[in-house]
Amino acid sequence: MNFDGIFTPAITPLAADGSIDYPAFDAVLEHLIASGVHGIIIGGSTGEYYAHTAEERRALAERAQAVIGGRLPLVVGTGAIRTEDAVDYAVHAKSIGADAILVTTPPYALPTQDEIAQHVLTVDKAAGLPIMLYNYPARMGVGMEDEFFAAIKGNANIQAIKESSGDMLRLHALASHYPEIQLSCGWDDQALEFFAWGARSWVCAGSNFVPAEHVALYEACVLEKDFAKGRAIMAAMLPLMDFLEGGKFVQSIKAGTEIIGLKAGGVRAPLSPLDAAGKEALAQVIADLRSNVAAVTKASVDA
């Protein structure tokens, strides 16, 4: 499985009554495919998997596979507190022909490093699909540390990790000590640093609504090896990243998606949507970002 490029964790649009708006979901996926991202993730935090029933999660994965139809890799999230539930989502992902699965540390339970390893290996044994690990201790309560990596060493299906700890030392350790596991940036304002340390992948929620600009940073750093251009693009993107970290992350991603003309709907409780002032501020951030990145890329072409 090639995890190179921009992998978008797709939003889940909602209808006015709070149900999943499947035609709008189809439109989001088609938009991402047309925009040049390199893969799509379903059932991640940005997709509000934690607020979905098991039946909804399976239905979304099936719908995504039907719409994408092999045009891009499909990665299905298996996040769950119980290993048995994660196994069920993984087996279902395999049954529909998903290309890979996203496997997290079980939240809330606070497992030991060995218990996290056993969870991951059990999911792998059941599904036999390429795995992108997801290390996000701020949400899960426990991170994936050296003892965990020692326990899973040599497993051919564990191919990548979305590293979302925000800890630069963890980035250094992963790049230096576990080169067999492909690094994927999961902490947006560190994307430049991830690429400098050899990452070739970025899982970025903002690519739901400004995909071309995320692709531009990936191409500058990974394909062109032009970090001066990359720094300029990153500087233009930082105001968006600051906005997204303002306490309403998923709400902002959905608002951004609506700003570009797609239907996103609200968010499920306990979250509440972005207010009018927030949407207006985000619209300006997006407009400035697009203009500034365009200027950087044009200057690069003209040089």
Would you mind describing this structure in some detail?
This protein is 50% helix and 12% strand. α2 (54-68) links the parallel β2 (39-42) and β3. The chain has 12 helices and 8 strands. The mean pLDDT is 97. The longest helix is centred in the C-terminal third of the chain and has 27 residues, at 276-302. The chain has helices spanning 22-35, 54-68, 83-95, 113-127, 137-140, 146-152, 168-177, 191-196, 211-223, 227-244, 249-259, 276-302, and strands at residues 5-9, 39-42, 74-77, 100-104, 131-135, 158-163, 182-185, 201-203. The protein is globular, with a radius of gyration of 18 Å. The protein has a single domain, classed as Alpha-Beta Barrel (TIM Barrel). An 8-stranded parallel barrel has the order 1-2-3-4-5-6-7-8, surrounded by 6 helices. It is of the alpha/beta class.
Quick synopsis:
With 303 residues, the chain is of the alpha/beta class.
Annotation field: number of helices = 12
- Total strand segments: 8
Provide the CATH superfamily. Aldolase class I
CATH-scheme architecture: Alpha-Beta Barrel
Strand order of the largest sheet: 1-2-3-4-5-6-7-8
The class by helix and strand makeup works out as: alpha/beta
N/C terminus separation: 36 Å
CATH topology grouping: TIM Barrel
What does the largest sheet look like? 8 strands, parallel, barrel
Tell me which oligomeric state these chains represent: single chain
Compute the number of structural domains.
Answer: 1
What is the CATH C level class, in words?
Answer: Alpha Beta
Cα-based radius of gyration, to the nearest Å: 18 Å
Question: Can you tell me the residue ranges where pLDDT is under 50 for at least 5 consecutive residues?
Answer: none
Q: Approximately how much beta-strand content do the residues carry?
A: 5-15%
Helix and strand sequence: EHEHEHEHEHHEHEHEHHHH
Helix content: 40-55%
Mean pLDDT: 97
* Inertia-based shape: globular
